[in-house]
Amino acid sequence: MGILLSVDKLSAGYPSGANALSGANGTADNSGTLEILREVSLEINQGEMVALLGSNGAGKTTLCSVLSGLIKPSRGDIYFDSINLTALAYPEVVACGLIQVPEGRKIFPNLNVKDNLLLGAFKRAQSRRHENLEKVFNTFPRLRERAHQLAGSMSGGEQQMLAIGRGMMAEPKLLVLDEPSLGLSPLLVEEMFELILKLKQTNLSILLVEQNVGQSLECADRAYVLENGSIRFSGTPDDLLASDELRVAYLGI
Q1: pLDDT digits (tens, 9 = 90+) for 217-235
Q2: Could you write out the DSSP letters of every residue in the chain?
Q3: Is the pLDDT of residue 21 over 50?
Q4: pTM for this structure?
């Protein structure tokens, strides 16, 4: 099982005037940049599900944006499937097979379900979009039932399912799920994590970025804890749960 994603001493942030947009805590450096991530290193192996845990403002979404090419790092390197992604823009990152399902779903509410899904194959796997559409419908039968329904008229759980399905249309080598349970009822959270486990069983590599600690640790092979932009812990779920200090200080359980 080889390494698929390797992040080495990654630091990144925003212009200090844009700190309200980041949703994360940070400190401004001499260049006027608000540094959110500080020397972050992590790895994901082929076929592995890794949980990135941390409270609101820890820097999780900023890290997702850097991995996806939406934000350029100030220092450090990102290697994905032996390709250096550090300086690539997001369309090139998508073309390499690193696909992000963003926080808040970001579906197109005025398009129907089928058209939302087809847009997922715009940059990658376009020639196989109809075959992949069928695979998504087989994985998420509810999306087949609602193929011609406007996406904005669906429930929050169905919209999250659609966002994940759209990501699957691009044949991801690594699927980054940014807060997939955010805003869902407890019942829908249970359903969402059942779907995530179903995806894991396909041997898909997944980075699960979540505040929901308990459910995430039940799914993940390994976990990292991000606090104030730095990695405070890495190890197996059992290792994390065995540490009273980590559970209380970083996870709140």
Answers
A1: 999 999 999 989 999 989 9
A2: --EEEEEEEEEEEEEGGGHHHH-S--EE-TTSEEEEEEEEEEEEETT-EEEEE--TTSSHHHHHHHHTTSS--SEEEEEETTEE-TT--HHHHHHHTEEEE-TT----TTSBHHHHHHHTTSSSSGGGHHHHHHHHHHH-HHHHHTTTSBGGGS-HHHHHHHHHHHHHTT--SEEEEESTTTT--HHHHHHHHHHHHHHHTTT-EEEEEES-HHHHHHH-SEEEEEETTEEEEEE-HHHHHH-HHHIIIII--
A3: no
A4: 0.88
